[in-house]
Model the fold of this input.
Amino acid sequence: MLLIRIIILFPILAMLLVGTGCLNPFAPQLGEAGGSQVPDAVTIGGMLELFKYSYITKDSLYYSQLLDSSFVFQYYDAVNSRYDQWYRTTDLKATAGLFSNYEVIDLNWYNLPPGDYNFNFEDSLKQILVNFNLTLDNTVIYGFARFDCYKKSGSKFKIVAWKDDF
Done:
């Protein structure tokens, strides 16, 4: 009698285990990112929002998607009184270091004209100048960022060049 019950119940239990074996009740559904909406870089404004999102969430993957393969970052070297630059690989390493060394990172953009914010033309290079304040723990940095952005046909905006103007 016990053997008959085991023979009958075994296939039912096996089907239940197979059917739910890969289910993770704690995993978010596809499209969910911890309940927040990830910005899309189809416009200049969307690109800036994704940039801000990547900084605030310290997400190097989203940040790396913003940089074109030919990306150049130019900054003023106060020690040597001259402008210097680095390229995409160095920028990604520096940004990863920034993300891991600060507990609180906040970024705000200011004074971007509405026409630039909604700009979405494909196959065109667009230069924008935007004021920002960047908070790193208890330190606030104010400055201007000059971005050269490009959107290939059917793609999203990428930053080709970034010049830091303080």
Remarks:
- The radius of gyration is 24 Å.
- The chain has one domain: 38-165.
- The mean pLDDT is 84.
- Residues 38-165 form a domain with the Nuclear Transport Factor 2; Chain: A, fold (CATH 3.10.450.50).
